[in-house]
Write the structure tokens for this entry.
Amino acid sequence: MQSPDFKWAITDNDLYLSRADGKSLRYDRASSEWGALESFTDAESYSSLYSFHDGSYTGIKPGILSFRSGTHKLLSYDISTVLPEGSPVLGVSPGFFAAKLSDGIMVLRGENSTAKSVKLKDPPVTLTEAGSCVSGCVLWGTDGQSLYSFGDDSSWAKHPLPFEAPAGKKIARYTMSVTMDPATRKLTAANVAVLTDDGLLFVSTKGGAAGAVTFEEVKKLSVAYCVSCHSGEAFEQEAGLKAKKSEIIKRLGLGLDDGLVMPPKTAPKAMTSGDKKIMVAWLTLQTEGVDTGPIVTNPNPTVDNATVPITGVLLTQSNKYCVSCHPVAKFKAFWIDEKSDILNRVNSGNMPAGQTMTAADKAALIQAINDLM
């Protein structure tokens, strides 16, 4: 499995997953619920921005690295002389940043009103991920196989994993909060999150057990909420959901009165907020699949097709076959923006879902769609 491009941090209460575009998720370990974190209006001023709890973020732009704390204090650090642009990022968490240099590792920390940097000598292996130590060491890092730490004595040490892999699973990535005993060099992990190579996320709880967001759980949700409108699109399979990953996440987050929300307001069963969080959490961890359906933009931007109703044959066929799953189908924007995808699905028999369209109706609908352009 190709690991998704996110950085993460875990605390006693929460797990945070953050992408470089500023989008992030918070997993509340007490309630076992996912939620999206706030977005930042200044995100576009950074080439990369990782956001975390309490309004904290780490922003990167050419020559500058900024830490923002929960008290909204912005601390910027000139990295032009210590960190070449484009250096691979190994780890980001609140007030912590680590990147790979050609001859070592650069670690930057935001502390009170200052930012401090330290250059670590090359580790024995090429690290792919790193995290901050709570105490006893500067950071921990892994090459995907072995675990290393850089101690306060300025030396690297190799360690066994301070946690057990989930039964029958192969670890792809992990993060943890770590302390090290300086005398024995023993690492202890208080909190652990593990991503396995088959896409499951295991998060330690205060009781010591691990919970997982599994595809089997997501499949049940897809069958319950999705396939009534999307039969034939393989939404009960991993590949089908991954192919529409970005669109599904976007449409699950829309308001109930939005015509593109999924499931639609007219669906036989309303999707609970908890079920939405489970599906979004699983999708966020997946690598985007291949979606070959192009989107055709509005050919006349001076006309707001979202408010222009359809008429004639298109209205007749839409009322007969479409609006039960797609309330927004009564407006031109739906047919224009989704034209290619709709034609592909009608021709393949994937739409309408749960109904058989006569050959005459199919021909009339296809002609009406083409007449819009």
